[in-house]
Amino acid sequence: MDMRILTLGDELLRHKAEPVADIDSEMAQTAQLMLDALEEGKGIGLAGPQAGISKRIFVVHVKEDAPRVFINPSIIETSQETVKFEEGCLSIPGIWAEVVRPKTVKIQAWNEKGRPFTLEADGILARVILHEYDHLEGVLFIDRLSEFKQKRILEKIAKKKAKA
Ligand code: NI
């Protein structure tokens, strides 16, 4: 089964995702399908809502790290220190922009085997975790840009759509 990735404009991307009620074999399979879709899309992170699943799950696979599954995550702590870094999103193809976010994050979640874990991340891993967590809240990276920048991006997308 192939997962269709929802794109900007789809209402589901704007919903707050529901907690996962149980981590059973079906949920483990969903996590695997999401990791497959991530690889196919050449992304580094994918959240449930992007795959049309309004549940609190996201997967992350950054270079030189194992694939990771986060179910019902809670952010425990973020650093005061922030960094600016370029982001993209499988749901907003072709758009990249620099976003300011905390430099580090401490997060607690369950993996696809139903085991709880806590992770402290910085660099690209922290970046992608914070980006994916936002998806569970219905927030997209462009929401974190200035109104001016958002407007320019929406114009760019509209132009691209008109050409297609
Ligand atoms: Ni995204």
Give an overview in words.
The chain has three helices and seven strands. The protein is α+β, with helices and mostly antiparallel strands. It has one domain: Peptide deformylase (Peptide Deformylase), CATH 3.90.45.10. A five-stranded antiparallel beta sheet has the order 1-2-3-6-7. The protein has a two-stranded antiparallel sheet with strand order 4-5. The longest helix has 17 residues. The mean pLDDT is 95. The chain binds nickel (II) ion. Nickel (II) ion binds next to α2.
Mean pLDDT: 95
| Order of neighbouring strands in the sheet with most strands | 1-2-3-6-7
Quaternary structure annotation: single chain
What form results from the Cα inertia axes? globular
Give the second-level CATH assignment, the architecture: Alpha-Beta Complex
Distance between the termini: 27 Å
> What is the assigned CATH homologous superfamily?
Peptide deformylase
DSSP strand content? 25-35%
Number of helices: 3
Q: Output the radius of gyration.
A: 15 Å
Topology record:
Layout: H1 25-40, E1 45-47, E2 57-60, E3 68-78, E4 82-87, E5 97-102, E6 104-110, E7 116-122, H2 123-136, H3 147-163
Antiparallel strand pairs: 1-2, 2-3, 3-6, 4-5, 6-7
The structure holds nickel (II) ion.
Keywords, please?
3 helices, 27% strand, alpha+beta, Peptide Deformylase, five-stranded antiparallel beta sheet, two-stranded antiparallel sheet, single chain, 164 residues, binds nickel (II) ion
